[in-house]
């Protein structure tokens, strides 16, 4: 009998994951990963753990309780692993550092590669298990390439819940030991299975956002670590000449791609002052809410931020030309292939479908590999390409690689 450790989060998806694996004849152990808060955060506030959780709207105890009840209902062993210190170092610190540098991180992707399929998988393999299983809406395939077994990361059957994007940094070694039992199901089907078994999580709402933020708004959370500093909000007119300049003549393909991927260096003199903010590092490209500027004919969207000058640049309306670019760049060290057999060599190109954020419909794109990194050029201009986020590329329903947008 194969042994599998199921990451029981306290939600319905992981509960049904454990149930299905038990039905399939696996020896199932439910493992709850305790990731927040670490002792350092509680000690800093000088209050009890219970008081800290209540104050910050964290669901840690509620989720652990639901995970335990699920294990009891399914009659499987249950264990809690405390990864809070490592989570703080690897995920939360990264989260703060990226915002401070003016980039927008995706800690969900990092949590999966570093914690769930990193530290957790290491523990699982050291303790005699065969697999790690999670409640992600994605699927795992297996093919043979040149006589070698190759694992595929496939989109979930439920287009509305596909979570393959969040696993875009997994490796062949991690996929080999992973199972995703609900990847063939839709969310309503998962809830129906849980209801039929009268599981405690059957009607539990899906978690929103990041656990370590809780009910606190993101800017308020960032202010706990990143100092507030008043700066200007500048509005750039859509007809500003910089948007209508003719393209130069390029001597090479890499020059043309670099031009398409380059961000505009805005200065306050290009626009008009429309408001004040409390820190450019609290904002991100494409953001519409939270600016506190009213009286405009259309909503203002952030088109750029500059943390060095502490300036936020905005444009009127979702079609403002400052929001759109046709290409992006990934540093060589940040290019990641799940399908290592498909990796491009210097000078090679590949036509793919790609997305630059979760839930974005897949877009036609071309990968261009060069010595210093990779350019991704899109058939249609993309709105709010954001430094620090991940771009993931697919063949049909298979996610084959990804990279951090530079």
What does the secondary structure layout of this molecule look like, with pairings?
Elements (H helix, E strand, L loop, with lengths): L2 E5 L4 H12 L3 E8 L4 H7 L3 H8 L3 H15 L3 E5 L1 H17 L6 H20 L4 E3 L4 E8 L2 E8 L16 H5 L1 E2 L7 H10 L21 H5 L8 E5 L17 H9 L10 E6 L22 E7 L4 E6 L7 E8 L3 E3 L11 E7 L7 E8 L2 E11 L6 E6 L2 E7 L2
Parallel strand pairs: 1-2, 1-4, 2-3, 4-7, 8-11
Antiparallel strand pairs: 5-6, 6-18, 8-9, 10-11, 12-16, 13-18, 14-15, 14-17, 15-16, 17-18
Helix pairs in contact: 1-4, 1-8, 5-6
3D architecture notes:
This protein is of the alpha/beta class. It folds into 2 domains: 220 residues, HUPs (Rossmann fold); 180 residues, Translation factors (Elongation Factor Tu (Ef-tu), domain 3, Beta Barrel), CATH 2.40.30.10. The chain has 10 helices and 18 strands. Strand 1, helix 1 and strand 2 form a beta-alpha-beta unit. It is globular, with a radius of gyration of 23 Å. The mean pLDDT is 94.
